[in-house]
């Protein structure tokens, strides 16, 4: 082993705050909305989760890279994030099963990163000031250049990103002959598909903007609206799809962005949160069973508590125990429910996998 | 479900005296549980025979019973109080066992007492290997494959089924004799044969070898609703084969991917739900095969443990406090996170830092003991380092150990003997960590180090990085070192002293340089949530990053220095004193700041001081905190020798030592000047002399006459103290001693053979003095006071002797200008009292006297130290009924090759208190009749 002097890198936040660190991953410049994830495991799953599309992730865990990367532990074909900010980065890993180091993985995927940063300071900053955009660079330290680049980064609010990460062509997973699920792909995570297939489902994944009649044409037993990036408000095509499914009174399940879309379809509004929930330790109470679950979360928008109070179409089924935000709803008189968090986890605890069973039961009882 | 309102009165069972494997972590959990229940308006009754605990203090519980942990004492309590429920999970295995005994005897049922926090059947499942195995099988959880064989044929069949490598463990043999690892089939028959013969019942356990697998612990909490959360994952740096209590451990787990971690989490939840219905804390241990990430369960402990104390300190999540609330019916979602105060207690802590725990061993106290680490725990204490990264945490933990190292490496103390290093990598003892560093430094290949130690590559890599960094630093001098490089070294936990060694400069120069360059410590909060939420609890650690979160107030502040890791000679007693010191200073209106690095303690509970700095009790860290907080002074006399020895530097740097001045502390330590003081005050002491080599020792011995007590200065618990009876013994001991502690000033005292020993503790305000207690030892002089039975008050000293003791105590305390506590030890021969030594600080016996006389002497003494009160302001009203005996407790059974032999060097690990009404008591008479039994040279 030799002593390596590392290449400097710079972080510029939208409010002008600057941080210095060293370059990891690909050398370059990248911008996006900055957000932090408090999970202590699962960096690869986070980076490949399409819901993080266009964002720059701050991992709060002090060491990242320790166990390398493994192809089969991805949540989509490749990293979807725009960049990473890390405290201590390990280019070396110890896991025998691993394919490559995180350094190689990020480089190959063209992901720019900055390490050796006081990430805790950044987190406290975002916690106080709220979500904002950021530019990171290991190419230039010139502030004017970085500022110009930062201006090009679009604002997250009102941004429709789902169709950008959605599949271009419909495809199926799981054995034919199983329960037929039509999944609307707004940025679906691999483990959602795995969770359905494990339960004997035959899933057809449709591109985000598929016409509703085409979806109905496949004749599914149940419908699923996936997670995904961006603001749910501009997703009128998905909202219409949900409305049509509800009209037909088919079993319907939504996760994360899908949950928000379902709320919007019922006339309940959504809002941009101060700095969102991202981590694998969020406590949620199931109001119907009284039991709790530790959940995996990744969302910057949420269903409005105020709006839901005045709605007779939607009831709250799950609540966040930290801040009492809405975590799950059911649509009154319909076979439809959704959750804000990620029952498929990956990364995160498996406490909420029962929701997939509930969905299957709903279909079977239909 | 909310609180069970039928529970109005709870009995908590403590863990008794400190022994290896069961230490002061149970004082921490017991006192937390007690406070937690009292918050709910529940009357708490406590039983524990250990007087040095905070849990047995009136500040902690309503009714306190300092009684032996026996059924008859439980009955005695139940007859006196209406107890609704018993909480037996806070006092380790001792408390659980007592609860089971009482259950079997029908005691709980008879008195209508509900057992809370545990399911008795669950304990049965977890303690019995076979039941555990069956249970895991039923739950579909893998355990280590193995079976017992009682014949050669059976053994061969089992081996064929489980494959190689495997382990043979003969039943009922001490310390695993006759057993061992078998790598290949060709060695099996011979090993099986010898194993079967070694076992007195000719039975062996043939088990798959998982030596070298990665070892993990998971700390969980479960409520009555079946909600389970993981508080902390802990990874053992030392792989399977070393007892987890003897392993270096790291939290959170460093090398687990999410898939494997979540599988482990699922297994842990399945196990806790599978073994029984109960609400409380639980610990599960796993082994992970590094080849394929497969997991097997090792054991489950349905109670709070040493690891849960560590996990509480590591995460900030107070496990015992919450577990106690769950035991009385609350569910997790009904409780608040104690750190943020606003979010839910139902969550899993997220860490944005790393903790490293390193055990502290005392093999030097057990001459002839097997120093290898294995399946039985041998350490006596532990330290925890918190850092923003692993390397920083590791360096801090090494700096906390007080083993005369300045951290890991860079102190010129490395071993360069390749053979010794290689052997140590494979056969770990207390120093393997240091030898891994030495191995890299010596250029032993990475693969060899990994093959021999089986330690995960990531950890080894981190250590190699340090060695590489040092080589880079050594290329520079103090003037030429680049700022970035100096900053990196500090970020990785290097002490100024280590950097000074590498740069061949002075510690003070490195300090000045980095301060000039703006490389300063900042303090970060332990907040359970990686800064996601604002936290209210002032629990800090230092690091070298940008943002400081510990804002110094403009209040008047007092720093209390803790006593560091527990070890023989310095244990829980000093933590008791520190906690009371903090509470007393707070009562006087000061902001209190605690500095300590021992995760087992009550003093490092974030509820105790106004601010807790979990930092090494190591000069650089202390000084930086003092510079940051600017306290009016530092209390050093409560934290044992660890804190006391920092007095000199504090004094030198112009920082006020609260109470007795540094000069007086130094005077008492320096035997020459102290004897002059005694002479000037006309106080007798044994004839003595000071020597620095064996030649003068011999000539001095002819003047003093044998037997002689040989004792080095500035040591703890009588380390290397010995009574010698002839010149040959003297010579060999002095030579040995100076080899271990070069340059030491060794004292030779004429040993008063057959003398009685007594000691007195007193509080002095510089003018007046109050003797809080005089104790007479049952054993003759020559046995360390910590190892002696001490009787309070004296049992057969005449008025004339007592008067001399009182007179001398007063004279010495005043002559030393004591402000605070002082302890003086006496030898009494032919009615004449001689002074053996005086320590102007809190002693081991102070908590014992507080408990026996039911008065808060540390509180009083602290107020005197602070100048808030004078002796005459107190109305002393000790409760004096009969006698209290301080009973020393040993852990010799952990070292099968070591005989119980007592002498001037302390060997006991703990103590109990035993009250007797009069001197005709059988217990006393029995101890008295055996008083000479164990005295050795």
Written description of the protein model:
The complex is a heterodimer of chains A (366) and B (937). With 366 residues, chain A is an alpha/beta fold. Chain A is 25% helix and 32% strand. In chain A, the strands form three sheets. In chain A, strands 10-12-11-13-14-19-18-17-15-16 form a ten-stranded mixed beta sheet, sandwiched between helices. In chain A, strands 1-2-8-6-4-3-9 form a seven-stranded mixed barrel. In chain A, helix 8 packs across helix 9. In chain B, 35% of the residues lie in helices and 20% in strands. Chain B has 31 helices and 33 strands. In chain B, the strands form six sheets. Chain B has a seven-stranded antiparallel beta sheet with strand order 14-13-10-11-12-15-16, with helices on both faces. In chain B, strands 31-30-27-28-29-32-33 form a seven-stranded antiparallel beta sheet, with helices on both faces. In chain B, helix 13 crosses helix 14 and helix 26 packs across helix 27. Chain B: It catalyses: hydrogencarbonate + NH4(+) + 2 ATP = carbamoyl phosphate + 2 ADP + phosphate + 2 H(+). Chain B: It is an enzyme of class 6 (ligase). Chain B: Pfam families: CPSase_L_D1, CPSase_L_D2, CPSase_L_D3. Chain B: Keywords: ATP-binding, Ligase, Nucleotide-binding, Repeat.
């Amino acid at each position: 082993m030799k002593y390596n002097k590392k290449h400097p890198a710079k972080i510029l936040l939208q409010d002008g705050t600057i941080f210095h660190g060293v370059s990891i991953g690909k050398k370059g410049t990248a911008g996006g909305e900055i957000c932090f994830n408090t999970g202590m495991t699962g960096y690869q799953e986070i980076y490949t989760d399409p819901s993080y599309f266009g964002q720059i992730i701050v991992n709060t865990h002090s060491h990242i890279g320790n166990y390398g990367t493994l192809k089969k532990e991805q949540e989509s074909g490749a990293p979807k994030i725009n960049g990473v900010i890390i405290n201590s980065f390990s280019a070396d890993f110890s896991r025998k099963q691993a394919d490559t180091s995180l350094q190689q993985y990020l480089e190959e995927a063209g992901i720019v990163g900055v390490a050796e940063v006081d990430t805790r300071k950044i987190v406290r900053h975002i916690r106080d000031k709220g979500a904002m955009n950021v530019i990171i660079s290991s190419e230039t330290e010139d502030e004017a250049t970085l500022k110009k680049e930062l201006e090009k980064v679009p604002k997250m609010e009102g941004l429709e990103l789902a169709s950008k990460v959605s599949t271009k062509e419909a495809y199926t997973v799981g054995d034919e002959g199983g329960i037929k699920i039509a999944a609307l792909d707004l940025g679906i995570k691999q483990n959602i598909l795995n969770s359905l297939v494990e339960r004997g489902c035959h899933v057809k994944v449709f591109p985000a903007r598929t016409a509703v009649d085409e979806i109905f044409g496949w004749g599914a037993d149940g419908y699923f609206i996936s997670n995904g990036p961006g603001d749910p408000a501009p997703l009128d095509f998905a909202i219409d799809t949900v409305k049509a499914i509800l009209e037909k009174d088919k079993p319907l399940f939504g996760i994360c962005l899908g949950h928000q879309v379902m709320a919007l379809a019922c006339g309940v509004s959504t809002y941009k949160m101060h700095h969102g929930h991202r981590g694998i330790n969020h406590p949620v109470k199931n109001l119907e069973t009284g039991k709790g679950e530790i959940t995996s979360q990744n969302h910057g928008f949420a269903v409005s508590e105020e709006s839901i109070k005045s709605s007779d179409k939607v009831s709250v089924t799950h609540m966040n125990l930290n801040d009492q935000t809405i975590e799950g709803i059911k649509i009154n008189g319909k076979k439809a429910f959704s959750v804000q968090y990620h029952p498929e986890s990956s990364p995160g605890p498996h406490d909420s996998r029962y929701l997939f069973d509930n969905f299957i039961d709903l279909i079977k009882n239909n | 479900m909310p609180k069970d309102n039928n529970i109005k009165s709870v009995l908590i069972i403590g863990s008794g005296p400190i022994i290896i494997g069961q230490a002061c972590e149970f004082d921490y959990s017991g006192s937390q549980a007690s406070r937690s229940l009292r918050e709910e308006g529940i009357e708490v009754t406590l039983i524990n025979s250990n007087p040095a605990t905070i849990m047995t203090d009136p500040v902690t519980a309503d009714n306190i019973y300092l009684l032996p942990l026996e059924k008859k004492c439980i009955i005695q309590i139940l007859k006196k109080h209406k107890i609704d429920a018993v909480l037996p999970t806070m006092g380790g295995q001792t408390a659980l066992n007592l609860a089971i005994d009482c259950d079997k005897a029908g005691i709980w049922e008879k008195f209508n007492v509900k057992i809370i926090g545990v399911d008795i059947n669950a304990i049965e499942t977890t303690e019995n290997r076979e039941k555990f195995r069956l249970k895991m099988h039923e739950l579909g959880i893998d355990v280590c494959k193995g079976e017992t064989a009682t014949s050669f044929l059976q053994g061969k069949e089992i081996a064929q089924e489980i494959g190689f490598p495997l382990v043979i463990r003969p039943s009922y043999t001490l310390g695993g004799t006759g057993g061992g690892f078998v790598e290949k089939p060709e060695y099996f028959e011979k090993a099986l044969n010898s194993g079967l013969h070694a076992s007195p019942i000719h039975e062996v356990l043939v088990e798959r070898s998982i030596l070298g697998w990665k070892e993990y612990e998971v700390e969980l909490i479960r409520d009555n609703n079946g909600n389970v959360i993981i508080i902390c994952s802990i990874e053992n740096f030392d792989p399977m084969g070393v007892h987890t209590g003897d392993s270096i451990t790291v939290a959170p787990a460093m090398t687990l991917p999410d898939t494997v971690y979540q599988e482990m989490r699922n297994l842990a939840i399945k196990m806790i739900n599978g073994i029984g219905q109960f609400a409380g804390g639980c610990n599960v241990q796993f082994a992970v095969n590094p080849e394929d990430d497969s997991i097997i369960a090792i054991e489950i402990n349905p109670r709070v443990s040493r690891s849960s104390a560590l996990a509480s300190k590591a995460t900030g999540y107070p496990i015992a406090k919450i577990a106690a609330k769950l035991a009385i019916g609350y569910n997790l979602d009904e409780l608040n996170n104690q750190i943020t105060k606003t979010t839910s207690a139902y969550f899993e802590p997220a860490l944005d830092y790393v903790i490293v725990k390193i055990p502290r061993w005392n093999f030097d106290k057990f001459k002839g003991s097997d120093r290898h680490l294995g399946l039985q725990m041998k350490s006596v204490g532990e330290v925890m380092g918190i850092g923003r990264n692993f390397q920083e945490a590791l360096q801090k933990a090494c700096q906390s150990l007080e083993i005369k190292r300045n951290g890991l490496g860079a102190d010129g103390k490395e071993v360069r003997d390749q053979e010794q290093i290689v052997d140590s990598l494979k056969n770990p003892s207390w120093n393997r960590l240091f030898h891994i560093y030495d191995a890299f430094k010596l250029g032993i290949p990475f693969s060899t180090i990994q093959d021999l130690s089986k330690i995960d590559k990531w950890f080894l890599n981190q250590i190699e990085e340090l060695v590489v960094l040092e080589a880079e630093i050594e290329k520079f001098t103090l003037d030429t070192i680049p700022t970035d490089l100096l900053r990196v070294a500090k970020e990785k936990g290097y002490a100024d002293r280590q950097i000074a060694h590498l740069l061949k400069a002075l510690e003070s120069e490195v300090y000045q340089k980095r301060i000039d360059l703006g490389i300063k410590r900042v303090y970060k909060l332990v907040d359970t949530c990686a800064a996601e939420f604002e936290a209210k609890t002032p629990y800090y650690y230092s690091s070298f990053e940008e943002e400081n979160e510990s804002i110094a107030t403009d209040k008047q502040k007092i720093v209390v220095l803790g006593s560091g890791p527990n070890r023989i000679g310095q244990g829980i007693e000093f933590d008791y004193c520190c906690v009371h010191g903090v509470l007393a200073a707070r009562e006087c209106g000061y902001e209190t700041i605690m500095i300590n690095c021992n995760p087992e303690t009550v003093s490092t509970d974030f509820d105790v001081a106004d601010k807790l700095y979990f930092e090494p009790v190591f000069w650089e860290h202390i000084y930086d905190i003092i510079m940051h907080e600017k306290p009016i002074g530092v209390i050093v006399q409560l934290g044992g020798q660890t804190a006391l020895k920092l007095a000199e530097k504090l004094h030198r740097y112009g920082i006020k030592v609260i109470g007795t001045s540094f000069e007086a502390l130094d005077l008492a330590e320096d035997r020459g000047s102290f004897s002059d003081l005694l002479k000037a005050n006309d106080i007798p002491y044994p004839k003595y002399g000071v020597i620095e080599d064996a030649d003068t020792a011999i000539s001095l011995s002819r003047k003093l006459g044998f037997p002689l007590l040989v004792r080095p200065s500035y040591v703890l618990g009588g380390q290397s103290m010995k009574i010698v009876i002839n010149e040959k013994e003297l010579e060999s001991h002095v030579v040995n001693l100076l080899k271990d502690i070069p340059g030491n000033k060794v004292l030779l005292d004429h040993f008063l053979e057959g003398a009685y020993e007594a000691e007195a503790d007193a509080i002095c305000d510089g003018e007046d003095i109050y003797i809080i207690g005089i104790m007479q030892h049952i054993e003759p002089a020559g046995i360390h006071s910590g190892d002696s039975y001490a009787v309070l008050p004296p049992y057969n000293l005449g008025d004339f002797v007592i008067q001399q003791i009182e007179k001398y105590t007063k004279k010495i305390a005043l002559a030393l200008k004591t402000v605070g506590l002082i302890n003086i030890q006496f030898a009494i021969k032919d009615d004449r009292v001689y002074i053996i030594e005086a320590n102007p600080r809190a002693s081991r016996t102070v908590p014992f006297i507080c408990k026996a006389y039911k008065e808060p002497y540390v509180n009083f003494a602290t107020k005197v130290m602070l100048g808030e009160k004078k002796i005459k302001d107190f109305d002393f009203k000790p409760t004096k009924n009969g006698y209290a005996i301080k009973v020393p407790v040993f852990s010799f059974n952990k070292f099968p090759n070591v005989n119980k032999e007592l002498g001037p060097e302390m060997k006991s690990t703990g103590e109990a208190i035993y009250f007797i009404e009069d001197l005709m008591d059988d217990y006393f008479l029995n101890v008295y009749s055996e008083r000479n039994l164990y005295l050795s040279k």
